Amino acid sequence: MSSAANRGPMIQISHVAKRYPGGYEALRGVTFSVEAGEMVFITGRSGAGKSTLLKLITAIERPTTGSVIINGQNVTAMKPGVIPFFRRNFGLIFQDHKLLFDRSVFENVALPLSITGFPRREIARRTRAALDKVGLLGREKARPITLSGGEQQRLCIARAIVNRPAILLADEPTGNLDTAYAEEIIGMFKSFNQVGVTVVIATHDEDMIERLGPRILHLDQGKIAA
Amino acid sequence: MNWLLVHLDTLRESLARLARQPVASALNVIVMGIALSLPAGFYLGLNNLQTFSRQLSSDPQVSIFMAVDASATEVAAVEQRLKASAEIGRVEFIGRDRALARLKRSAGLADVLANLGRNPLPDAFVVTARSNDPAILEALHDQALKWPKVEHVQLDAEWARRLDAALNVGRVLVTLLAALLAVALVAVTFNTIRLQILTRRDEIEVSKLIGATNAFIRRPFLYFGILQGLAGGLAAWAIVALAVLVLNIQLADLTMLYGTIIKLEWPDSNYTMILLAFSAALGWLGAWLSVSRHLWQIEPR
Q1: What is the ipTM of this complex?
Q2: pLDDT along chain A (226 residues), means of 10
Q3: Chain A contacts of B300, Cβ < 8 Å?
Q4: pTM, whole model, 2 decimals?
């Protein structure tokens, strides 16, 4: 991201509403901002609008009204040709993982790098470094289907951080994991946050985050609850 | 240099993808090859006929046949008239004895002719005009018919010119056929790529979500389309070449009976390059349409 834009907050959401065709309102007048280097949890029951919010931030969907400004760039007015390059600033961890099961662990993690167009040797180096960070270095030739649930989640994290993103967005990263695994995953996010990455995590698992005591944005029926 | 490596990588990947489904790939290539070989083959055939007819019509002549019972003086009178004309270039007299001897030699009809008892052939003149203007020979044709003891006058170039005109019609038909089959080819590629997209849908979706440009997503499919098109073009070339080979063997037997040798020309390098470029371009187009349609469908709204 351009350094000139670093004055404002990293994420600035203003009066955002999202209405889907058919009239369903996922978000109703949401306003908040996240500073660079902050770690924020977005909580709320399923259907509260957490996933929609993450999709608006990454320009996967467009808000019906309001503005989304990421590091000084107005996402709402972004031209389609710019969006791919804009998305490379994010590390995305999807609720449904979106791993490629016909590719090896290594190839899954290398995908963002080949999209960016790194030379092959650089791709190999960075991919191994990312796999090392999540403790999957020994499994690089394995297929994702042979990994456990926790390992698959760590694979998603490796793919999200391999491009050294400024912002890490995770949608229910601890969804189907038991407490021990979930804490391990959250620990990873904390360590990325400590080296300066802005982290936004959407979760319905409120017990887990109470112990962490971070900043929490609670969504209720498409609105931020006080 | 990096972009070059990226493209080489994509090329390698696409070749591997073709090789990974040998049966499906082979079927596609055969379908494309057959579709392309029809207009390509007809085109080559027309070209051959055209060359042949041009050779004939480039040397326009009039043949004047005397009546079989024409006397030597009557024949000499006609020869006098022909030689007197300033517009006529060359006059070749073919006496009836010479014509018979020639026929015996060339066409293997010696037995039949021997049984005839008398010579059935007339005296004849083959007349070539000084200039290439067809009007001169046409005028001569009309005049000579009125001369005494002239039985028949034939404009030799006429049928060749008619053939040439017919070939031009054929050319238009081949172009139409090529256009139709080009559409079929694009459709074949479109469908192949569509099936590939279906099996790689997840990959495309994830790639788009994490910042792949449309060009990045298109690239491997375009390469695949071009490669498959090229392979189809090569198959078409092979089919045409094989047809020429087989036809030439048959033609050699046939034309030997008539005492000449007519050979079809082999597809030359120009023809080959145009055929391959055309098929590759069609493959590219089919792939491009297919991927673009899919990308448009998954575009966020």
Answers
A1: 0.88
A2: 61 94 90 93 86 91 93 90 93 92 94 91 95 93 92 94 95 84 88 93 79 79 78
A3: 59-62
A4: 0.76
